[in-house]
Amino acid sequence: MLGSSEYSDSFFVKKNLSEAMLMAIEALKQLSMRVVSVDVTNGVIHAKVSSSLRSMGEDVTIRMEKNDEGTLMAIRSACNYAGQKFDWGKNQKNISRIMDTLSVLQNKDYPDADALLSAMVTQINSSSNESGCLALLIGLVVALGLIW
User: Looking at the predicted structure, is the pLDDT value of residue 67 above 90?
Assistant: First the structure.
């Protein structure tokens, strides 16, 4: 099975936006997908999937849309290497795994979701910034080493 370089689907939960975001973050973490950023204002979560024999890794994006009955999650998985034209079914498998995990988690209660989400977002975004700074620093050291 080849598959294209991206796949998307949606999942609806009868939860408010904060609860849905917590649920999605928990699902991604359970699946060993690294959450790299969370934008509560726009309802967007970005995560990375490590490379494997099937692909050079994937970028996962979950966009939340609140309505009167709950929250709709638009989930997208795409190859993070632009030159990869086929994913061997990896993106569809990522989405299926996420949706299966969300199905289990949708019955879980998230008391004090706003405060918990705020704390979690601070932790995720600060660790992503630290990783980004470290990568930038390493890049600068390598570049300077090549110049000298």
Answer: yes
